[in-house]
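Support request, please re-run this one:
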Amino acid sequence: MTKPDDPLSLDNQLCFALYSSSLLMTKLYKPMLDEIGLTYPQYLAMLALWEEDGVTVSALGGRLYLDSGTLTPLLKRLEKAGLIQRERNAADERQVLVRLTQAGRALKRQAAAIPRKVAASAGVPVAELIALKKKLQKLRSGMEG
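Re-run finished. Output below.
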C-alpha cells in the first residue's frame, strides 16, 4: 500500500510513473504501427526523418537520444524495408547520411492519423496531453543540463 510520506514507495517515484506510462503508451501505439509495418522505435526515427530528411546518423541519434549501437540495427531494418537509404556524405566520408526513399515519404500519409487516434485512446483531454508534453519537455531539458 502506498504511503504518501514514504520516499521509497514505488508509487511515489516519478521514474516509475514515467516508465509505466511509457510502457502503456508503447502498447497503445503497437496495433496502429503494426498496420503500417513499423515498430515504435522505427516510428520515432521516421517522425524525425519526416521533419528533417538527409541528416547524419549521429544527428539522428542525438535527436532520438539513441546511441549508434541501438540506432544502426534500427536503420538497417528500415533500409531493408525500403523506407530509407544510407549513404556516405560526399563532403565528409566519415559521415553517413540518412535519406527517405519515395516509399518512406509516402508512409507519412499512412501514419498521419496515428497521433489523433492515440490522443483519442489515451482517455485524457487533448489540452491536458499538450500541457503534459510541455512539462515533460521541460523536465527533459532540465535533466540534459
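The first helix runs from residue 14 to 36. The chain has seven helices and three strands.
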